[in-house]
Amino acid sequence: MRGPVVQKSNHTFVHPRYLLTPCQVSNSGPVHQGSAAYRDGSWSISSAGKCGSQSLSTSRPGPRVRAVASAEHLEAAQPSSSTQKKHDLSLAVGTYTLPHPDKESYGGEDALFFSSSASAVGVADGVGGWSADGINPAEYSRSLMRLVQESLEAALPAQSSTDPAASSNGSSPASAEAQASQPEQSAGEAPGSEAKLSGPPAAASSDRGPGPVDKDSAGNSSSAQAGHPSASIDAQQKASVSPQQMLLDALAYAHKGTRLPGSSTACVLQLDADSSTVSSAVLGDSIFVHVRNGEVLHRAKAGLHFFDCPFQFGDAPEHTSGTDTAEDADMSSFDVQPNDILVVATDGIWDNLQDADIVGLLPTSPAGLDKAAQAIGDLARENALNPEYDSPYAAEARKAGHDLGWWEKVSQGRVTSEGYKLAHLTGGKLDDITIAVGMIVAA
C-alpha cells in the first residue's frame, strides 16, 4: 500500500520514505489517517505515513511550555443552549469528520472527543502503516482519546459528578464506557473493513470498570484506575494541580493505558474558566490555532522528527521499539475571552489549507460552529484532490528536498509575462479529515 500522494498533472509523487517503514513506532509501511468522533461518552462513525525507518529518541528534555498573552475582553457572546456552563466562560464546539475515500467503511483512523463537563476537546491521528500488519490503526487513536477524556473528567471537582446537566450527557468515565460499547456505535461491521472494530478499543472490559488494563511483571491484569493521577489525591490537592499538569497527566495516563499495537499523534485543549485561560498539549502534527477578530493570535507548533514523521505515542516495548511520551508534548497556555475561536484538527486540514482559508470560514456565533467545521473540512478535501493546488504539504515537501525532476520542471513549465516559469511539485494530500471548531462563550 502506498502512502499519501501529491500530484502534478500526470505526475505522481510518492515520498520515498513511504516505501520504507514508519519511524520504528511500527514495522509497517505507509501512513494514512481517518475519522471517528467520541463526544461525551459515545462514538459516531462518519461515512463521508508517516516516517521512514528511523528510531525515535526518548532522551529529549521535558515538555516545552509557552504562554501567549491576549488583549482585553471582547463583548460577550450569547451562550449556546447545548453548552455546559463553567463559571463565567464555557466552551461550545462543532465537529466534522471526513475519512479518506478508501477508509469510509470503517470511519478512518482519526479520533476526536469533546467533553462539555471538562471543557476539553482533543483529536488524534492514528498511524496508518499498521494496516499492513492487519491492524486497524483507529483502535489506538480512539483508545487514546477515550482515556484522555476519562482522565480529565476524573479530575473534576466532586460536585461536578452530581450535576444533572453534566451526568445527562454521559460525560462521566463510567457512562462513557457504557455508551462506547453500545452495538449501534460499533465499527468494523461494515463490509470491506480490513480489521474488526468493536466501538472504541476498550482497554478494560466492562466487568473491570472503566480503567485501562495494566499488567504487572507477572503478566497479571489489573485495572489501572487505581494508578490514575487523580485517584489518590483529595479535592484540595486537585485544586493545586495546574491546568497544564492536568493535561500532561491525562496524556501520560492515556498513553500508559493504551496497551495496543498502533501509534498516534494527539492534540488536546482544555478551558480553565477560573483563570480565563486555555491550556494545550500537542504531540505531533495534529495542531490548533487560536483566532480572535479574524486574526490568528497563536498557532501550535507541530512536533516532527523529520519531514512527514511526527512525534507519536506507541506502546513500547511490547508493540513498538520506541515511542514519544507526554513529556515530549509542546505545552502552551494563553488567555481567552468571549467570541475567541479555537480550531483543532488533524493534518488532513493543515496539509491542505492556509490559515487565511480557515479564518475566512469561521462563524460569528455558536450556532454556526458545525457548519463552519464542515465548510473547512470540505474545502480541505477539495484542495487535496486538486493537482494544481500549491498546498502547505507540497511546500514543506519542496523544502525537504522533494520536488519534480529537472526534465519535469522544464516540460511542465509555462510561459508567463515574466518569461518561462519552471514547474514545481504541487497538489494536495488526500487524507482523513477531523476538525473541531470551538468558541469561548460567556455565561
UniProtKB/TrEMBL annotation:
<feature type="compositionally biased region" description="Low complexity">
    <location>
        <begin position="165"/>
        <end position="190"/>
    </location>
</feature>
<dbReference type="InterPro" id="IPR036457">
    <property type="entry name" value="PPM-type-like_dom_sf"/>
</dbReference>
<feature type="domain" description="PPM-type phosphatase">
    <location>
        <begin position="92"/>
        <end position="440"/>
    </location>
</feature>
<keyword id="KW-0464">Manganese</keyword>
<feature type="region of interest" description="Disordered">
    <location>
        <begin position="155"/>
        <end position="240"/>
    </location>
</feature>
<dbReference type="InterPro" id="IPR039123">
    <property type="entry name" value="PPTC7"/>
</dbReference>
<keyword id="KW-0378">Hydrolase</keyword>
<protein>
    <recommendedName>
        <fullName>Protein phosphatase</fullName>
        <ecNumber>3.1.3.16</ecNumber>
    </recommendedName>
</protein>
<dbReference type="GO" id="GO:0004722">
    <property type="term" value="F:protein serine/threonine phosphatase activity"/>
</dbReference>
<comment type="similarity">
    <text>Belongs to the PP2C family.</text>
</comment>
<dbReference type="GO" id="GO:0046872">
    <property type="term" value="F:metal ion binding"/>
</dbReference>
<dbReference type="InterPro" id="IPR001932">
    <property type="entry name" value="PPM-type_phosphatase-like_dom"/>
</dbReference>
<keyword id="KW-0904">Protein phosphatase</keyword>
<keyword id="KW-0479">Metal-binding</keyword>
<keyword id="KW-0460">Magnesium</keyword>
